[in-house]
Amino acid sequence: SLTDMLDGKIARKYNLVTNFGKFMDPLADKLLVCSALICLIELEQLPAWVVIIIISREFIISGFRLVASDNGVVIAASYWGKFKTVFQMAAVILLILDMEPLELLSQIVLGIAVILTVVSLVDYIAKNHKVLTEGSI
Fold this sequence. Notes:
- Pathway: Phospholipid metabolism; phosphatidylglycerol biosynthesis; phosphatidylglycerol from CDP-diacylglycerol: step 1/2.
- By secondary structure, this protein is mostly helical.
- The protein has six helices and no strands.
- The longest helix is centred in the last third of the chain and has 26 residues, at 103-128.
């Protein structure tokens, strides 16, 4: 996540922001988080329903972006989506550490991540619903 943030700053500073980067950057984050979450289910560190919510949101947003892309529109990551990713990654790290003193913190961070997952989904749809209804933003 730190390298992701650094990459974004460099791209903006040197005017290297591309539509490809706007699409691939969030996709790479999704693959990383979803892979870790699925492993955590197998390790019995995480209930499956949490992962279903998170992965469902990712499929919905990816589909939404695909429709937008077909209409010539690139939907960049939102601030809610970025906050969601930070909390998801923090939750994954805390759950992987599996340390007793961090158990409550892990659950709180995970809860915030799930809430932000839903909030960011609603935010994307609210801000970009015209892509589905009118073909443009």
